[in-house]
Amino acid sequence: SSDMMPSCSSTQNQPCPATRLLQKISGKWKGIILYRFIQQSNWHFGELNASVSPCPTRMLARQLAQLCADGFIQKHILTTQPLVTTYHLTAEGMALKPIILAIAQWEGYSI
């Protein structure tokens, strides 16, 4: 029934929750990046970079920084020599799994 649907009303200052989520996960590469994290929850930057080719390295770094800022991914730097940077999906990011999988399975959408 329609009362099971979340409210999508907005105030003058705040867009509705669905709009806020779509703003956070929109972008040319964020969907593919999140899909990779659904497939494998931990990534080294270089491995992730190779898996989302042809995304430019600087763009990947920018998109990861935004996903980290939004709380979907967490960055971890190991103080080994050389430094090793890994990324993993947070609980909030894992909550996106059904949404990302639904998008990936949507007819006409291919990754």
Topology overview:
Layout: H1 17-25, H2 30-39, E1 42-44, H3 45-51, H4 57-69, E2 73-78, E3 84-89, H5 91-94, H6 97-105
Antiparallel strand pairs: 1-3, 2-3
What this model shows, in words?
With 111 residues, the protein is of the alpha+beta class. Helix content is 47%, strand content 14%. It is built from 6 helices and 3 strands, in the order H-H-E-H-H-E-E-H-H. It has helices at residues 17-25, 30-39, 45-51, 57-69, 91-94, 97-105; strands at residues 42-44, 73-78, 84-89. The protein has a 3-stranded antiparallel sheet with strand order 1-3-2. Helix 2 packs across helix 6 (97-105). The longest helix is centred in the middle third of the chain and has 13 residues, at 57-69. It is globular and about 50 Å long. The mean pLDDT is 85.
Structural class category: alpha+beta
Helix-strand topology string: HHEHHEEHH
* Poorly predicted regions: none
Largest sheet: 3 strands, antiparallel
Envelope shape: globular
Write a brief caption for the model.
47% of the residues lie in helices and 14% in strands.
Brief descriptors of the model:
111 residues; three-stranded antiparallel sheet; 3 strands
